[in-house]
Amino acid sequence: MRESSYPGRYWHMLTDGRMQCDLCPRDCRLHEGQRGACFVRARQGGQMILTTYGRSSGFCIDPIEKKPLNQFYPGSSVLSFGTAGCNLACKFCQNWDISKSRDMDRLMDQASPQTIAAEALKYDCRSVAFTYNDPVIFAEYAMDVADACHALGVQAVAVTAGYMHDQPRRDFYARMDAANVDLKAFTDEFYFRLTGAHLQPVLDTLVYLKHETQVWFEITTLLIPGHNDSDAEITAMSQWLMRELGPDVPLHFSAFHPDHKMPEVPATPPATLVRARNIAIQQGLHYVYTGNVHHAEGDTTYCPGCRTPLIVRDWYQIKQYRLGADGHCPDCGAAVAGRFGANAGNFGRKRIPIAINRA
Fold it and tell me: How far apart (Å, rounded) are the C-alpha atoms in residues 34 and 44?
């Protein structure tokens, strides 16, 4: 399908003749021929066009723990892909060459939703992940891929900043089985200054996922030295998560490395992630992980009842798995939140780029 022929949803006309995009809180207002802040949604011929439908920046098979999802069929493989563009403007973006790209020619891999689903099945991937850039901006494509995956028994995973309006949110997550949501900080000042967005819509997405869907989701916070890593902010965030979502939503703290528009900020010390993890656990969260560092304790899933190690990892490699398909601790019988099989997968730490034939 040609990029200029795929109509997007979520827009309405204003009385001044402009078209307003209703997908995310940016509410871009477009004259004919203009693109939104995400760069991939455009007004063309009196309608909204999604310019990246069926086009990808590449496909790769990853461990599900890399998304990161530690309690969604651990050890399984996931077919990952993204497109280009983003509806946030994070100065610290770790994938800026993809998310901020305006070069549509880099989207060399083309595939229909049915082809992607078939390839996932062919490579024995339990799920397909929309990642590398935010799937919110290519929601129509992601939802169609999810539908095609479900038809073949493959699950759909969104890796997202969670910045979207209510109706698109409902349509989008009706198709998703799991998600990892970036909670980039816990102050609106950070969001406005460093991402060009606001905190509240992200919190709204998290509350919606917890209380109105069956989607399994985990949360990731990238800790940036001097910007969102204080004890006070981590404590406030952990308390909000406990109060609004409960203790069973996994939280990942990951390490920043100097990139994009913040090359002068130092990399996050491993000790910062360990400190943040300890604070979150002290506030009552059951499952808190450290990412981008080698920290065995922070990679391990513990029983929320007796604190016995149940899933022991070395980076993305499952070293020990003591859960059955019912997700209960074999020692004390406590339920472990998540989606589990009788056995862990054995995909390990591999990363396998693949080419998909056009279809």
Answer: 8
